[in-house]
Amino acid sequence: MTQDDMKKLTAEAALDYIEAGDIVGVGTGSTANFFIDALAGLKGKIDGTVASSEASAQRLQSHGITVLDLNAVGDLPVYVDGADEATRHLHLIKGGGGALTREKIVAGASSKFICIADDSKLVDVLGKFPLPIEVIPMARSFVARQLLKHGGQPVLREDFITDNGNLILDIHNLDILDPVELEIELNAIPGIVTVGIFAQRPADVLLLGDKDGVKTLT
Ligand code: 5RP
Asked: pLDDT tens, 56-84?
């Protein structure tokens, strides 16, 4: 089974968490794209979606799936999204696709967060994948200096602007031993919009695809 086969199988398994009449929160990335394609088969059953990025909104619409503004709907029953790294505690690094801010908002507005990933994403300690941080442009250098004090090596993501008009710093060389604490600390730095650690609001379910099928971690 290829990595894409595992992503597809895992994305399809997430359909079990969707109920008739749901407004579904939809994430961003290649695994989320498989979920969007699978969700097209249920489009008559759900009441619509809220997308975590412009790219996902376009893909949803290309399938004829309704995309709603989060401000126009209440809290969501379920959010389905991928991750760059995940632990057995369901703490995540997200933002490889740069959509972390809207992803964190939609995750926060959802009762259940179903994370879908292939088993290459499972780690004991977060941080080998460079931690994405969305930053207000005028704060870029200030924030980078603060991150150096935390032992990280910030690298500006070249030629990339987020859907919110901001920049991404990817922080290398972090061993994130206490994800909840580091998320709180980094959130307090002025100029940081969103930290790509999802630990204060972790996933509720991690569906992990490997060569034998899909495992469910809760
Ligand atoms: C986008 C994300 C994605 O969920 C993450 O990058 C995983 O992507 P993929 O499914 O392509 O491996 O956080 O901002």
From this structure: 999 999 999 999 999 999 899 999 999 99
